[in-house]
Design a protein that fits this description.
Chain lengths: 510, 410
């Protein structure tokens, strides 16, 4: 009998219309790093939410140290020493690191919070595990990687033995990812048990001992990571062979489609400029990738290109036309397509049906309206075609409310809409964020197909794998400036990482 | 694969049925509470008068001379109650439909038009001015009233769109500005052209400009004129119904409605799609104002009431009741017709109760409770939808298992 610290046996959790977990079993050994692998919507988060007490399962039992336990809410989970670092951090922005760590578990002297003893413990913990943080810094002032360390310290402060990491590497630089892996190995050496949710196979290979795979809510099995190849794991996850690396022909760059000169965009959050005098060009038939760590001005840069925000200085030219002050609709008519960073904020009207979302950029077109009346039949036919062609899956086809669709299919719908517009320039911002390998493969293929059809593509991505995989040219943005230009064939992830973190920069050529 | 194409639009249908049932639940609970209020209030009145009655008697009395009147008062024809009943109900319902539409329309665009009362007031002024001073025909007076409301709605819209001032605050202030401006303009120290010093009201339209009165209609029931010969209902109710249908068409069938709703649901996505959100905010408030103003036109051009500039210190109830109408209808334009009729119905019915025992304000309690519950209507709705789903699941359990099997084979 192996020594299991947590056993989730035959867990079934249903939501209206879907079995998110169907008879799933997960056994976590003491002192191991156990990866939980699955596509989006495979039920990983649901399973972890069950373990953390956020959902009650319809069937199945949870055992801790061989004893059946009931976890009705996160407080029960904490009492059982189960801790979780959520994908989106749960921190109070305007509180200090220390206050965030002790929040909800404040040591008290009478009516007063005993910060002195809390600080002592936090400093102790952070030294012991090599988690460098400044306890007096405010969350809003520290980097994302640092914020994650605060989340980890929160778990340690509560003496958690079982640590759940929900896609912890999504927001980190390669260097920070390496550090995190070291920290996780340190925990393992201390005898703590780690559940590591991810769909990045390389990370599993690097750090995990065993890996359990979920597919469409069903348990596909647990493998020893050391004896299993990356290809095998991805096949288990997706159910078919997946091309992990997109193959593409040599780029044949044509005329300049997009030309940006000395673009400066003021920031909405701070007083400095978010983008500082950035210049670049995108040619027809090439994929230019703008890499960088989140929050280094890429968002504002794209906003200025697409017209969502006004630049304070600089000039944007598209197909020879000055579009710096052109309204959004004008840019769209000129042949600009935009796959936005935030699909819920910009990409979709979530309460609209899928078909209404499919024509969001084209409802005014003669094809879809006469004298201001929408031709609902034409809309339905168009939407049905896109759904079929781009394999967008949803409960009720065109009539599905966009909100009820899975993230991957929402994204596919946006990609379908933007690509089917037949653009001259495709601006894709993190088009595969939060998607599973199957969907990523698909979207990558579509983007490469656009390039091969002679379209100019500007890809903004935080994922270095994606950057290396897709781009013909890489630009790195750091604190609003373009600090380097690379050829993906002659550079590597580590070099890019140094530029992204601001440790190095190329001197601007004349 | 075949599954997605054959899937019915059940989601939407059961959704609207859910809304309807939720609203009906609100009404039912409101009526029950109203009945209890009548019972208690009646009993207290009786006890104060020294009449000891048993619970059975009281129940009977509450039902016969109180509650039954509320429920059926609005159905009385002219013959038995001096022009009350149906005529009054549809007279009151027409402006309510319009103010309800005004609020509902703005809601769909993500705006809260709390200024329907002010727009209604200004609309009333424009209608009265066009009728009494300019002596225009009725249809021109109606256009004038819509114009007045539109101007008063547009102002908060402009503030919202270009200065990002919350429309709720601006429209509340413009309610009062509108009310006192209208009072002042009509009175003008007793010299106003519309002001009749003898009655301290505006001149009646009947005297000043009979062709400005809305046309009336009558219906034949059993060979007799249903509404009698003197107090006839106006065509206002039909104008309101046509307006509701038009608004429904605009919202659901046109690119304009598509843009407005997109702005309402997700301003950012609308902007991303190149929709001019500022223009839409102003237009939406303008149209909302025009609807409320037209409501005032429908009421004041029926000639049943004059404006009293010296005592009008409260905003017209039709304005705020519009919010209730829109809430009860879940902002559905067609639903506004029925919710306005309901509110008018119980208000009119309240006047038919035995006034020596029951205060007619109980109708206000009922509509108040109904509106209050409307805030919970989402809760009811999700409850009702869940019930649907549970039944649906039970029914579908067997076939869906088969389907799964098939899918796996394929």
């Amino acid at each position: 009998m192996a020594d299991y610290v947590i056993e989730m046996l035959n867990i079934t959790k249903e939501f209206p219309g879907i079995k998110a977990n169907d008879n799933v079993t997960l056994q976590l050994k003491r002192g191991e790093i156990h990866a939980l692998l699955g596509e989006n919507g495979a039920g990983k988060s649901t399973l972890m939410s069950v373990l953390f007490g956020l959902y009650q399962p319809e069937a199945g039992t949870i055992k801790k140290d061989g004893q059946v336990v009931e976890i009705r809410n996160p407080n029960d989970a904490t009492a059982l020493h189960i801790g979780m670092v959520h994908q989106h951090f749960k921190l109070v922005e305007c509180f200090t690191v220390l206050d965030n760590i002790i929040l909800g578990a404040e040591p008290c002297k009478g009516m007063v919070v005993d910060r002195a003893s809390a600080r002592k413990r936090v400093v102790e913990l952070s030294e012991r595990y090599g988690l460098k943080v400044d306890p007096d810094a405010k969350i809003e002032d520290i980097s994302v990687g640092m914020q994650q360390r605060v989340e980890i310290l929160k778990m340690l402060y509560r003496e958690n033995e079982i640590l759940i990491f929900d896609e912890p590497t999504a927001v980190l630089t390669p260097q920070e990812i390496d550090e995190l892996m070291d920290i996780m190995r340190g925990f393992k050496a201390e005898g703590k048990s780690i559940l590591f949710i991810t769909h990045k196979l390389a990370e599993i290979k690097a750090v995990a001992d065993r890996c359990s795979v979920l597919r469409k809510g069903k348990y596909m099995g647990t493998v020893e990571v050391a004896n299993t190849s990356v290809e095998e794991m991805s096949r288990l996850m997706v159910g078919r062979d997946v091309q992990l690396v997109s193959t593409k022909e040599e780029a044949k760059p044509g005329d300049v489609v997009l030309k940006v000169e000395n673009l400066t965009v003021p920031s909405k959050v701070h007083k400095n400029n978010a983008v500082k005098s950035a210049s670049m060009e995108v040619h027809a038939g090439e994929i230019v990738c703008l890499a960088g760590i989140e929050g280094n001005g890429q968002t504002e840069f794209v906003y200025a290109l697409t017209g969502l925000e006004k630049p304070s200085e600089g000039k944007v030219t598209m197909c020879g036309q000055d579009i710096t002050k052109m309204p959004i609709r004008g840019r769209s008519k000129l042949g600009m397509s935009h796959i936005p960073e935030d699909r819920h904020k910009h990409g979709l009207v979530l309460d609209y049906s899928l078909e209404n979302n499919m024509v969001l950029q084209r409802y005014w077109d003669k094809e879809f309206q006469t004298c201001g009346f929408i031709k609902s039949r034409a809309v339905r036919a168009y939407s049905d075609r896109l759904i079929e062609q781009y394999d967008v899956r949803s409960g009720q086809g065109s009539a599905t409310i966009a909100r009820s669709m899975s993230g991957g299919n929402q994204q596919k719908a946006i990609v379908a809409r933007e690509i089917d517009k037949d653009p001259q320039l495709l601006i894709a911002v993190q088009p595969t964020r939060g998607l599973d390998v199957g969907a990523i493969e698909y979207i990558h293929k579509q983007i490469i197909a656009q390039r091969d059809a002679g379209k100019a593509v500007l890809l903004v991505s935080l994922e270095l794998d994606e950057v290396m995989n897709l781009s013909d040219r890489i630009l790195v943005m750091y604190e609003g400036e373009i600090v380097g230009e690379f050829d993906p064939k002659t550079t590597d992830v580590q070099t890019l990482g140094l530029y992204m973190a601001g440790a190095k920069r190329m001197d601007k050529e004349g | 694969m075949s599954k997605k194409n054959t899937a019915p639009r059940l989601g939407n249908a059961s959704n609207s049925i859910g809304s309807l049932l939720a609203s009906l639940t609100c009404i039912l609970v409101g009526l029950v509470i109203g009945f209890i209020a009548l019972l208690v209030l009646g009993w207290i009145t009786m006890a104060q008068d020294g009449n000891a009655v048993s619970l059975g008697q009281m129940l009977q009395k509450t039902w016969n001379s109180g509650f039954k009147a509320i429920l059926s008062g609005g159905f009385y024809s002219t013959a038995n109650a001096m022009g009350m009943g149906v005529r009054t109900e549809i007279l009151q319902a027409a402006p309510l439909i319009m103010t309800g539409l005004s609020v509902a329309f703005a809601f769909k665009t993500g705006l809260f038009n709390i200024g329907a009362a002010g727009q209604y007031t200004v609309g009333a002024y424009f209608a009265l001015y066009a009728a009494i001073v300019l002596k225009l025909p009725w249809w021109a007076c109606l256009i004038a009233s819509a114009l007045g409301g539109a101007i008063w709605g547009a102002i908060p819209g402009v503030f919202k769109a270009f200065l990002n001032v919350n429309e709720v605050i601006t429209s509340i202030m413009f309610n009062w500005i509108g009310l006192y401006a209208v009072n002042t303009l009509i009175y003008q120290g007793g010299t106003g052209a519309m002001y009749n010093t003898n009655t301290t009201k505006t001149y009646t339209i009947k005297q000043a400009s009979p062709e400005s009165l809305l046309p009336t209609f009558n219906i034949q029931v059993g060979g007799k004129d249903y509404f009698g010969a003197i107090f006839l209902p106006t065509i206002g109710i039909f104008v309101a119904i046509v307006a509701a249908v038009l608004i429904w068409v605009v919202l659901n069938k046109t690119t304009f409605g598509y843009e407005l709703k997109a702005c309402g649901h997700n301003k950012n996505a609308a902007k991303y799609a190149g929709i001019n959100d500022k223009k839409n905010i102003v237009l939406s408030m303008t149209i909302a104002g025009a609807l409320a103003g037209l409501g005032a036109g429908l009421f004041y051009l029926s000639g049943s009431k004059e404006w009293e500039p010296l005592v009008s210190t409260a905003l017209p109830a039709a304005g705020f009741n519009g919010i209730s109408v829109a809430l009860l209808a879940s902002s559905n334009p067609i639903g506004c017709i029925f919710s306005a009729l309901f509110i008018a119905h119980i208000t009119v019915g309240g006047g038919f109760m035995d006034a020596s025992i029951f205060p007619s304000e109980v109708s206000d309690i009922i509509s108040g409770v109904v509106i209050y519950l409307c805030a919970f209507s989402l809760l009811f709705k999700s409850g009702i939808l869940k019930m649907f789903q549970r039944q649906g699941k039970a029914r579908k359990a067997a076939p869906s298992a088969e389907e799964n099997g098939k899918e796996r084979e394929a």
